[in-house]
Amino acid sequence: MSKLSAISAMMPKRRALGDITNAYTDEAKDVSVVAKKPQFFQPAVPIKMETAESQSELHQNNSRPYMDRICDDVDARDIDNPLLVTCYVNELYENFNELEKAFMVNPAYMARQDYVNDKMRTILVDWLVEVHLKFKMVPESLYMTVSIIDRYLQLKQVRRSKLQLVGVASLLIAAKYEEIYPPELRDLVYITDRAYNKQEILEMESEIVNTLQYKFTVPTIHSFLCRYLKAAHADRTMVQLACYLTERTLQEYSLLRFLPSTIAAASVLIARKTLKRHPWSPTLLKYTNYDEDDLQACIDEMSATFNSTVNQQQQAVYRKYSSSKFGSVSKLVLIFN
Length: 337
Prior knowledge:
The protein is mainly alpha-helical and 337 residues long.
């Protein structure tokens, strides 16, 4: 039995979208965290932490106390590490800022879907979070999977019975792009409770890649989050909390109207507030190109959706980050204001 087959044997196999009509019935799900270590961005070297003195200085001035302060060069310490490409990382992110606008999903695309809606999308993403965790994939695979799903749905009509197939095929594409060992087809068939066979998954994969014209090098929320956490001098808890916030946004259709970089920056700001750090800094302003006021609309939307009771049964991300392996950060009381 292969490693992935062994993992699949532990999966709560079900036809995830077969439960659409009973989406809000009580269904017990065992989503134990089996990853050997949490997948999150970690700086290559020890980071400089903000001191109490530096935070008190920031509070002494007016509404934007950090605007005239000197910015840190967060890449200076990595200049000798060729893997971090410090010589042109800023140009890379300038390109990412252009690409995210070019590939931004129409936030009203669901209105053109006759057979699926935003609630079904929420259920699908919730289930994919479970699958992603069980297969121990890298974080990039999950973000890319959701990006592929949304980009495909805005171009093609999909019947309800095929929505999970789109999700599984998108996961396979993302895994082939990001993972060393993508899941085997038989494992994907198993986790859908054999709702689809291998050939159907391959045909949908071909349909998606042709529809999207093989354009998969697209910046996601995670792409920006890694950079912004470095600029925030994030410790382990802040990293885990920011990752929890961004993964929670993946299932929220209403947040598609915000750019990935905006959501990443807003998540860092909320994490800093929650952990009693000063919300923003001149370094964050420099590397994100966002001021606190620029993020307020996104923060308000995140607050409204996170506190809503509509999607309370889609709890995969909450359960994942309630584990001690992820710092139990989902149990923290979030501070949005």
